[in-house]
Amino acid sequence: DNLQHLSLSDEEDQVLEVVPLVDTSSFSYNMCFVGMFMTYSRINFNSMRDVLAELWHPLGGVSITDLGAKRFLFRFYTLVDFERVWNGTPWLFNNHLLILHPLQPGEVPLLVPLIYIHDLKARFFSESVAHSLANFIGDYLDHDLTRVSTVKSESYVKVRVRMDVRNPLKRRRRLVAPDGTSFFARFAYEHFQVFYFLCGRLGHIDSFCNDPKMDRHRCNDPEIDTPL
User: Fold this and answer.
1) Residue percentage of the chain with pLDDT more than 90
2) Residue 207: C-alpha distances to residues 196, 215, 218 (Å)
3) Cys-Cys with 77: which of 60, 82, 86, 119 at CB 3.0–4.6 Å?
4) 140-159 burial, b for 16+ CB within 10 Å, e for fewer?
5) Between 15 and 225, where is the model more confident?
6) Residue 185 β-bridge partners
7) How, if at all, do strands 96-102 and 157-162 pair?
8) Quick one: residue 58, left, alpha or beta (phi over 0 = left, psi -120 to 50 = alpha)?
9) Are 86 and 16 in contact (CB under 8 A)?
10) 20-24, 155-159, 166-170: lowest mean pLDDT where?
């Protein structure tokens, strides 16, 4: 295998929060969101439930369940309520941004949506590369190599990982081949609709990001490079 010496540059040490999956054998996740508040502070569940129920005022009602690990399950009973909440994002509770992900058939609440890996070279569409890149992003769960085409722009690898979305998201990775040449693989996160390109954290937009290091970047320069 001429890719056995493939290496990943600039490895980063990460602490992964691994949480148990909930039992899905007797529950339908139709019209459900899994959500997480972008804060390290404790969320008062009863207060949050009452405030959001009053704010959304759903015609068919809403059930809110604490999944642990600061994740919550929001279940709606009419499509109009479900779509109105989704179309109204982003939502806030006590000035904490709520990130929502609509569950798809077969998904379980604590799985992260699919991540698409783009810009791979032709000979790098392999299980070992997919596994290595997934572990760089988070904790590898699964991958799919079925979208490989002779047209580069139409080819990508799909991986699924478990990770702590409060940490900055990985946006690209430099791959180094045995002959010393290198290129960047780019990551796209499915259904993550609020992503601040300066600090890399979900839910951080210019008015919410409190990282002092970002102050100097708040300008109109379109050529800011994305650090690894």
Assistant:
1) 20
2) 11, 11, 11
3) 60
4) beebeeeeeeeeeeebbbbb
5) 15
6) 173
7) unpaired
8) beta
9) no
10) 20-24
What CATH number labels 32-102?
3.30.70
Single-letter residue type at 109: P
d(CA 133, CA 140): 9
Rounded CA gap, 200 and 166, in Å? 10
Residue 34 one-letter amino acid: V
- 163-186 confidence digits (pLDDT tens): 766 667 788 899 988 888 888 999
Residue 140: its pLDDT value, please? Answer: 84
Length of the chain: 228
User: The tokens of 145 are what?
Assistant: 């190599």
CA 136 from centroid of its chain's CA atoms: 14
Quote the pLDDT of residue 181.
86
